[in-house]
Design goal:
Length: 422
């Protein structure tokens, strides 16, 4: 079957090839030739004007502007924050400095006086703890309330050492240095400062006057300028600020500047500031007094020599309000001549200015007899005739100590004779 199929396919293939080979070829007629038509001239039409291509629209990007603005605002905020923080730190540092100065022991004599006052108030308790006998307690009442060694000042000092209390004391009240003082010596002269014609100084002086310049910051700047010039007119301008400026902080700054000058001419304004109505200013003035290095006894004597009753009274009242007078009474029986003479000149200022109320009160009520007799000595030396009526009144009192009564009679006799002569 397969052979039949193959045979058929072979016959069909070769039979087709034979037929194609035997067919005659048919001639092909060539195409007729035609004459070409003449071409008509081409008309070239003008092209329409071409318009330039439109520029692409670029959208603006404000990212850089916003970023710059953000950086600027951040920097400004940081600067303001830093400025506020630095001001707070400076203020805190200033407050801490003031507090540390308040707590510090700038005036050793004041601290010693406080300790002595505490010792007197608690003497009975101390005596009880040490189990003293009544005789020992009675003998210790007249002891000099100071444990320092005697200064070498040339006075006769019969010293008795009490081994129980470990204190150095004078054998008799009449041997105290206070009785060696018979007058207030003339104050020593000091070099006067010159006036300055500097334009900066003169401009700053004008700006410190609050009736002309109301801005406190400008007055503060003027005070800082004056602090750089240690001359007479700058001290006068700073004195006006320290005593009369409306700002308490400027008054304090002026006082600190005056104390830094450390000249004898600044003593009186600093003293008057001790009576300032503001507590902050009074405290600053008290600290400034302790910073002055010149002789304060000369300063008290210099005010007394002015013979200006009003200025003397103002200085005396300021000394009373600042507590200087209260502390000077115990110094009258001190063993150091320098401290005794300073207290003597201060109380002499009160006597000369007729501000004797506190002195007479201590004369009547001070618990230490030596202090009361020292006050009588001052009244006798200064010939204070204005207190004579009070002395007559004290003489009428009963149960006065014998030594005090004799000293009182001698003082009355001397002042009374002077009054009769006058």
């Amino acid at each position: 079957m397969k052979l039949k199929v193959l045979l058929i396919c072979f016959i069909l293939f070769y039979g087709g090839q034979t037929v194609n080979a035997q067919m005659p070829s048919v001639p092909v007629r060539p195409p007729a030739q035609t004459t070409p038509k003449p071409l008509s001239p081409k008309v070239i039409l003008p092209l329409p004007p071409q318009q330039p291509p439109a520029k692409p629209v670029v959208q603006e990007d404000n990212t850089w502007w916003y970023l710059s603005l953000f950086v600027l605002v951040a920097a400004l905020g940081g600067a303001i924050f830093w400025l506020i923080g630095s001001k707070k730190q400076a203020k805190a540092a200033e407050v801490e400095k003031l507090n540390s100065k308040k707590k510090g022991k700038n005036d050793e004599s004041v601290d010693a006086d406080r300790e002595l006052e505490w010792l007197r108030k608690n003497k009975q308790l101390i005596d009880k703890r040490k189990r003293r006998s009544p005789e020992q307690i009675k003998a210790a009442k007249n002891a000099l309330p100071n444990s320092n060694v005697f200064a070498e000042n040339g006075f006769n000092k019969d010293v008795e050492v009490n081994a129980e209390v470990k204190n150095v004391q004078l054998s008799s009240g009449k041997d105290l240095p206070i009785y060696q003082i018979t007058q207030i010596e003339s104050s020593n002269s000091f070099p006067q400062l010159s006036y300055s014609n500097d334009e900066g100084v003169l401009g700053a002086i004008e700006q410190t006057q609050d009736e002309y310049e109301e801005d406190e910051l400008i007055r503060d700047l003027a005070v800082k300028i004056l602090a750089m010039f240690r001359n007479r007119n700058s001290i006068e301008a700073l004195t006006q600020v320290a005593l009369y400026d409306l700002s308490s902080s400027l008054r304090v700054k002026s006082l600190m500047t005056l104390s830094d000058f450390d000249h004898e001419s600044v003593f009186e304004p600093i003293l008057l500031a001790c009576a300032d109505p503001t507590r902050e200013v009074r405290a600053a003035a008290a600290r400034c007094l302790t910073k002055l290095s010149f002789n304060r006894a000369d300063a008290w004597a210099r005010i007394t020599e002015l013979r200006d009753t009003w200025r003397m009274k103002q200085a005396a009242k300021a000394a009373i309000e600042s507590g200087l007078v209260e502390r000077s009474f115990d110094r009258l029986i001190h063993n150091d001549y320098k401290n005794v003479y300073e207290a003597f000149t201060l109380l002499g200022l009160l006597v000369k200015s007729d501000e004797t109320e506190l002195i007479l009160d201590k004369l009547d009520n001070h618990p230490d007899l030596n202090v009361r007799m020292a006050i009588l000595h001052i009244i006798k030396v200064l010939e204070a005739t204005n207190v004579l009526p009070h002395l007559y009144h004290v003489a009428t009192l009963k149960d006065l100590p014998h030594d005090f009564s004799d000293a009182l009679e001698e003082t009355i006799q001397r002042i009374g004779n002077l009054e009769l002569v006058a």
